[in-house]
Description:
Layout: E1 2-4, E2 7-9, E3 13-15, H1 24-31, E4 38-39, E5 43-44, H2 45-49, H3 53-59, E6 68-73, H4 77-90, E7 94-99, H5 104-108, H6 119-133, E8 139-144, H7 151-167, E9 171-175, H8 189-199, E10 203-207, H9 213-223, E11 227-230, H10 239-248, H11 259-277, H12 279-293, H13 300-308, H14 313-323, H15 339-344
Parallel strand pairs: 3-11, 4-6, 5-6, 6-7, 7-8, 8-9, 9-10, 10-11
Antiparallel strand pairs: 1-2
Helix pairs in contact: 1-11, 4-6, 6-7, 9-10, 11-12, 12-13
Amino acid sequence: xxxxxxxxxxxxxxxxxxxxxxxxxxxxxxxxxxxxxxxxxxxxxxxxxxxxxxxxxxxxxxxxxxxxxxxxxxxxxxxxxxxxxxxxxxxxxxxxxxxxxxxxxxxxxxxxxxxxxxxxxxxxxxxxxxxxxxxxxxxxxxxxxxxxxxxxxxxxxxxxxxxxxxxxxxxxxxxxxxxxxxxxxxxxxxxxxxxxxxxxxxxxxxxxxxxxxxxxxxxxxxxxxxxxxxxxxxxxxxxxxxxxxxxxxxxxxxxxxxxxxxxxxxxxxxxxxxxxxxxxxxxxxxxxxxxxxxxxxxxxxxxxxxxxxxxxxxxxxxxxxxxxxxxxxxxxxxxxxxxxxxxxxxxxxxxxxxxxx
Length: 357
């Protein structure tokens, strides 16, 4: 169980905010596989209040998409606070502040991870947001372990971290890489342990290098954090939440989903994407998800390439019918934690003799 202020989450595994991915269809599908709490993809504060199609998409929430956190990014304390209030008015259950994005364009505009280098401004943003909505919903923070590996960067990190809890924030999610690392190199889980020891009984969620249900549980056990924020490991893998909950409860790691279960999940995801964006956009939007869904297929490279070529609804249904036919003579489904590493090492999947239907 994980508590974020007044919000109680039954299992300590949450779906992170993922730019370009954690939209309503991805979140809603994950909830059907035991994801207890999910965050919207990070949004720029001014987009919440400017009106128009983007604002309507951000503020349109489904009844089966709660509790939900709205993650905000920006550089102006006042605008941050206004946007936070607008998200709460729209029905968001938690406001999450992004001080972790390492994208060059974001840093150049003094947003995201850049704010870790300006503690005074970062703390002012935290204070303004909490004053605006802290009496209505929990406020949380996402940050990386610093701009870089310098002692000065670590001092700034802990200054912001301590201020967050002093102001009244309910939890802080810490990614074990620096901003300059981006996604290169390992996430330092030992730093998460250090942070948790520092804050005591205050709530810390860990992030970084969580690609399987076993990783989720290992992070809890090895670092002592209160929860795990699952980011890239949840793309095309909604089962990760159900599996992690089972392992935490002392059960065996469930078998990977069979072809028919994979197909049901993918078709649900596609239908929700059609609802959110329209059928003309659904197939192209789903290609990036299918790259990851295909990792669980016994014919991974062929399935991946087939869906990368999909251009419209008709081609989508043709590909699903070909590669996810539950009556097909498929090889045994096995869990491949990092299939790209196997491909690089020369592993192969022989599906030349597979028939469907």
